[in-house]
Write a structure and sequence with these properties.
This protein is an alpha/beta fold. It contains 6 helices and 7 strands. The two termini are about 30 Å apart.
């Protein structure tokens, strides 16, 4: 399944899974729009994608905790394309520390705003472009931290709260957009290794059950879901954990 002729938007593309997805989507022929919290990070990924595959890619700064920059990102994309076929909601701040006092008030507010409010506003402002597509997909990188009674992560409670809110939003969004043919696909991975999509071993398929989950495997789940016929609505991926 290729992405030729499809327009793909990726938030949080400056590093990790967002960067990996952007690089791989470029190789598959997508027209890309990537964002990161800083302009430099977004431009770096865009340059890597263009150098790697020759894909057409535009970079934007977007702080998901700042509504004005979310609107600006959507407006910038709308000025360059008439539709969006795949929106990948990957960006969200991670906050470490199991105790509430492990983070100050500003960090807590920023974490909840970027993960929860940021996802909601991103979908809101890209929805006209998604509706213009013949078959749009909204992909949400949530987290196993959003699963009920999953206490494995040492993330701060604010991260748990943000991801639980993101999961609740994805659930109702899937129900309400399905009549329009827009699929909402959410992934709930545990911690996984990022790897480097530009490294020659990125596509190594020799991983075993003893190896940690990788960004490549999570990416393959996304590609499987968006590659299905339009009558197939895969709502979520949950991953077995020890």
């Amino acid at each position: 399944m290729g992405l030729d002729g499809r327009t793909v938007v990726v938030t949080g593309a400056g590093r990790g899974f967002g960067r990996a997805f952007a690089v791989h989507a470029g190789r598959m022929g997508a027209r890309l729009f990537v964002s990161a919290r800083t302009p430099a990070a977004a431009r770096k990924t865009a340059a890597e994608v263009a150098a790697d595959s020759g894909a057409q890619v535009d970079a934007f700064a977007c702080d998901l905790a700042d509504p004005a920059t979310v609107r600006g990102f959507a407006e910038g994309v709308a000025a360059r394309t008439a539709q969006v076929d795949v929106l990948v909601n990957n960006g969200a701040r991670y906050l470490q520390g199991p105790d509430l006092w492990d983070a100050d008030d500003e960090a807590i507010a920023d974490t909840v705003a970027s993960g929860a409010t940021g996802t909601l506003l991103t979908v809101k402002h890209f929805l006209p472009l998604l509706r213009a597509s013949a078959g749009a997909d909204v992909v949400n990188l949530v987290s196993s931290a959003a699963e009920a009674r999953n206490h494995r992560s040492q993330a701060h409670p604010a991260f748990y709260a943000a991801k639980a809110a993101q999961a609740g939003f994805a659930d109702v969004l899937s129900h309400r957009l399905r009549p329009e043919g827009i699929r909402v696909i959410s992934l709930y991975p545990p911690d996984f290794t990022d790897g480097d999509p530009l490294h020659p071993r990125w596509d190594d398929a020799s991983r075993t059950t003893d190896d940690p989950l990788t960004a490549r495997s999570v990416l393959d789940c996304v590609l499987f879901a968006i590659g299905q016929p339009r009558d197939c609505f895969i709502r979520s991926f949950h991953f077995e954990q020890l």
